[in-house]
Structure formats: structure tokens, C-alpha cells
Amino acid sequence: MARIINNLININVIAKNHGKQIRDDKKYDALRDDGMSKEKAAHLTAVKKV
Fold first, then answer.
1. Buried b (16+ CB within 10 A) or exposed e, 17-28
2. Distance CA 11, CA 40 (A)
3. What are the DSSP calls for 1-19, one per residue?
4. What's 35's DSSP letter?
5. What is the DSSP letter of 21?
6. What average pLDDT does range 30-36 have in this prediction?
7. Measuring CA to CA, how many Å separate 42 from each of 10, 33, 47?
8. pLDDT at 25 exceeding the cut of 60
9. How far apart are CA 6 and CA 44, in angstroms?
10. More confident residue, 13 or 6
């Protein structure tokens, strides 16, 4: 719920750059906002899409 409200308020905000290991910063931020650990969110967003 908080993520939805945050997205509505900050539609034009650019995602923070979390380093070269994180391929999708927006996805990483969304997973962290939903309560996922930093390690797990980083692993899921660092996986190369085939």
C-alpha cells in the first residue's frame, strides 16, 4: 500500500542508482519497499534476463 501511494506522489522521480550489480533500480526499490531484505532484493534484480 505504501509503495502505491509513494509511486503516485513521486511519478517523475528517478530511481536511485544502487551500483552496477543492480540491473533494475526501480524493481529493487519496489522489493525493498515491500519488506524484502537487501540481499534478496539485490540477488533478484542482479539476475540477467534471458
1. ebeeebebeeeb
2. 25
3. -HHHHHHHHTTTPPPPP--
4. T
5. T
6. 92
7. 22, 13, 9
8. yes
9. 22
10. 6
